[in-house]
Specification:
Elements lengths: L1 H42 L6 H30 L4 H100 L9 E10 L2 E8 L6 E2 L2 H14 L4 E6 L8 H15 L1 H4 L17
Parallel strand pairs: 1-4
Antiparallel strand pairs: 1-2, 2-3
Helix pairs in contact: 1-2, 1-3, 2-3
């Protein structure tokens, strides 16, 4: 009777221990689920913890193995109560291993939390540094805008000075041309090839007579023939032509007509006007008519 009572107590004790082991196993499963959820939440933001996550996965697999061992041990306990001492020893060893695993998991979780805090601190520092850089950039942009304005003003002043300088140069060159015209030698046939052109007018018809220094008499010629002859002589006589326009006293020409003929011939063919000489107004004194 005493032996049966003892055996019953041992069975009850073993059942309680088995229940406690199952309860611990359930708690471990919940803890494993929590760890898995935490690992999933943290995996997206902490890329640098990949190695740790791999290690946790390995620990999870080890825990799964432990769970399988506990199931096996549960089955053994249910089938072989007579091996209680061995089973109790194995249960103790398994519980100790589980506690060590949980402790290691907690330590790992603490390290991960510390690394997350460190990462957040570094992120905050980076944000502060970024804000400082943005402020410096804004200051540099402001300085650049001010310098750009000053540069534009300087360029405008430079262009204004360039325009004034060009105007002064233009005035100087104009004065230089006028001065050169004033001091240049007077128009002279010396050294030039002499060409005499005489104009007269009868009614509405203009008569042109032409003679060179190599001719003894005047020859009648049309305006087109005159220009062709003068073009040829201008090319041949490198020292230039001296065009003498003659209007006889009874030429029948008006002043404007005489001036037009003279200006056209001088402007096209006379050496003096080809070299930039001043215009000469033809004068028709009584009894003369030479230009």
């Amino acid at each position: 009777m005493e032996l049966a009572k003892t055996t019953g107590e041992e069975k009850e004790s073993l059942a309680l221990k088995l229940f406690a082991a199952e309860n611990d196993l359930s708690m471990l499963r919940v803890r494993l689920m929590q760890l898995e959820e935490q690992r999933s939440q943290q995996a997206g933001t902490i890329d640098t913890q990949h190695e740790d996550i791999v290690r946790l996965q390995s620990e999870k697999e080890a825990l799964e193995l432990v769970r399988e061992q506990l199931n096996a041990e549960k089955y053994v306990l249910q089938q072989q109560l007579d091996k209680r001492n061995e089973t109790i020893r194995q249960q103790k060893e398994n519980i100790s291993a589980i506690q060590e695993t949980v402790t290691a998991a907690r330590d790992q979780l603490n390290r991960m939390q510390q690394e997350i805090a460190s990462t957040r601190s570094e992120l905050k520092n980076l944000q502060s540094a970024h804000q400082a850089v943005q402020e410096q950039l804004a200051l540099m942009k402001s300085r650049y805008a001010a310098q750009t304005g000053e540069l534009l003003e300087a360029r405008v002043a430079e262009r204004r000075s360039d325009r004034q300088l060009l105007e002064l140069r233009s005035d100087y060159e104009e004065l230089q041309v006028k001065y050169d015209k004033l001091i240049r030698p007077a128009r002279s046939p010396a050294g030039r090839y002499l060409v005499e052109v005489r104009y007269t007018k009868s009614g509405d018809r203009i008569r042109i007579e032409y003679k060179t220094q190599d001719s003894a008499t005047y020859a009648s010629i049309t305006q087109q023939q005159l220009e062709q002859a003068l073009d040829r002589l201008k090319q041949e006589k490198r020292n230039g032509l001296y065009i003498k326009v003659i209007f006889p006293e009874d030429s029948g020409l008006t002043f404007n007509e005489a001036w037009s003929f003279t200006a056209e011939l001088h402007g096209k063919y006379d050496y003096y006007f080809q070299e930039g000489g001043p215009e000469l107004v033809p004068v028709l004194p009584p009894g003369s008519g030479d230009n």
